[in-house]
Amino acid sequence: MTQDELKAEVGRAALQYVVAGEIVGVGTGSTVNKFIDALASIKDQIPGAVSSSVASTERLRALGIPVLDANEVERLAVYIDGADEIDHQGFMVKGGGAALTREKIVAALADRFICIADASKQVQTLGAFPLPVEVIPMAAAQIARRFAAKGGHATVRLKDGQPLVTDNGQHILDVTGLAIADPAAFESEVNQWPGVITVGVFAHQKAAVCLLGTEQGVETLEF
């Protein structure tokens, strides 16, 4: 199967975790787009969704799925999203689509994070994928120096030759050269650096389940 077909398969498989009568948390990205398309087939069973990005909101609404503001919801049964990397404990790196802050906000509302990914995203140690960090622009250089002290190399993410601007009006640093041996401690530390809005390590909001698309079909990992 192609990578696109694997994404569609795990997107469909995630429907089994959607709780009838409950609002569902929806992430962002190419794999989640497959889930949103599948979700349309059962949209009459749910009151709506809380979305982690403008792009996902537009896709949900185009398919007739109501989108609620996160402030209107006290909890979610599940949050379904992809990952750029996931290790064998359910810790993830996310933010390749620049939606990491809103993703983490919606994930924190959910009882369970269901990760959907293809097998290429599974790693032993987080850090091979450039780590996204959403930052306030005036702090970008000093945050880059802090990562350099850890052996990392941070660059400002560009779009059309200019710094990419997130849905929150901020910038993204992508950090290479890291091997994140203790994701929870790393996330806690970087979150304290002045100017960091969100670091793309999801350890405190780790996955409870990962639906992994493989050539043999969908593999279910529980953490």
CA gyration radius, whole angstroms: 17 Å
What portion of residues belong to β-strands? 25-35%
Strand order of the largest sheet: 3-2-1-4-7-15-16
The fold-level CATH name of the largest domain is Rossmann fold
CATH architecture of the largest domain: 3-Layer(aba) Sandwich
| Main sheet makeup | 7 strands, mixed
Basic shape = globular
Q: Estimate the mean pLDDT confidence.
A: 97
- What is the number of domains? 2
* Helix fraction by DSSP (H/I, runs of at least 4): 25-40%
Top CATH class of the largest domain: Alpha Beta
Topology, number of strands = 16
| Class from helix and strand fractions | alpha/beta
What sequence of helices (H) and strands (E) makes up the elements?
A: HEHEHEEEEHEEHEEEEHEEEE
Roughly how many Å apart are the termini? 26 Å
Counted by DSSP, the helix tally is: 6
Mind explaining what this structure looks like?
The structure is a single chain. This protein has 223 residues and is an alpha/beta fold. It has helices at 3-13, 30-39, 54-62, 100-109, 140-149, 183-191; strands spanning 24-26, 49-51, 67-68, 76-81, 85-86, 92-93, 110-118, 131-135, 153-156, 158-159, 162-163, 171-176, 196-199, 201-202, 209-214, 217-222. It has 2 domains: 3-123 and 204-222, Rossmann fold, CATH 3.40.50.1360; 131-199, 2-Layer Sandwich (Alpha-Beta Plaits), CATH 3.30.70. It starts with a helix and ends with a strand. The mean pLDDT is 97.
